[in-house]
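Suppose you are handed only these lines of text.
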Amino acid sequence: MTDAPSTLQVVPDLPRLRVIEERDAPAVLDAFDDDAMRRQGTIRTLEEAQNWVSFMGGRGERLALALDLGGSMIGAVVVSSIDQENETGWFWYWMHREHRGRGWMSRAAVTLADYALTDMFLHRLELGHRANNPASGGVARAAGFVMEGVEREKFLVDGVRVDVHTYSRLVTDPWPETQRLPLDL
Ligand SMILES: CC(C)(COP(=O)(O)OP(=O)(O)OC[C@H]1O[C@@H](n2cnc3c(N)ncnc32)[C@H](O)[C@@H]1OP(=O)(O)O)[C@@H](O)C(=O)NCCC(=O)NCCS
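From them, the structure of the protein bound to coenzyme A can be written out as follows.
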């Protein structure tokens, strides 16, 4: 007797990177339902998520990638505010709360940073994170960024002034050994 064909979908054990698409809006809405995402903006409705997705999908001034696990978007890694004259870009990322702590964002960040500094011809990527968000600093260092300084008491969060740690990665910096993710562009 042979087994009946399985209808279970096999979820891969590693995300891949691809451009953000309109179908990602419900996943984005779910991801923003999280206190830790407050500094990323406010998305409370499907329409707001659709607007975010369609804005991020525009090419030119930014490249916004989804971390795709088995067809679902579980995070985003973005180079935005691209300044072609100075060959710089602003780098940022978020991961859905249920998928954090697996090293996937570090791998996604190094993959996009490499791409931005080669195929996109940028010279310098910049990022900043709140001092009380150590996971973001871990991602930055794993992606080859070097800490440049502290912007003291830059943000006012819930009545408390918070320092920001600033980082950059130059095309001439050593490439980190962090494993890369598959990139489908
Ligand atoms: C920041 C964020 C993307 C990190 O995602 P993640 O899935 O935890 O990232 P990784 O699993 O790749 O881990 C990154 C590093 O942070 C470390 N880390 C994770 N959580 C940590 C914590 N609470 N305290 C200290 N370090 C932590 C990990 O150990 C790892 O460091 P290592 O490479 O030295 O081991 C995620 O927490 C997030 O989306 N937060 C909300 C949005 C946000 O803050 N974005 C960044 C804005 S600047």
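What can we learn from it? The chain has a mean pLDDT of 94. The pocket of coenzyme A is lined by residues 36-37, 40, 92-95, 100-106, 129, 133-136, 138-139, 142 (CB under 6 Å).
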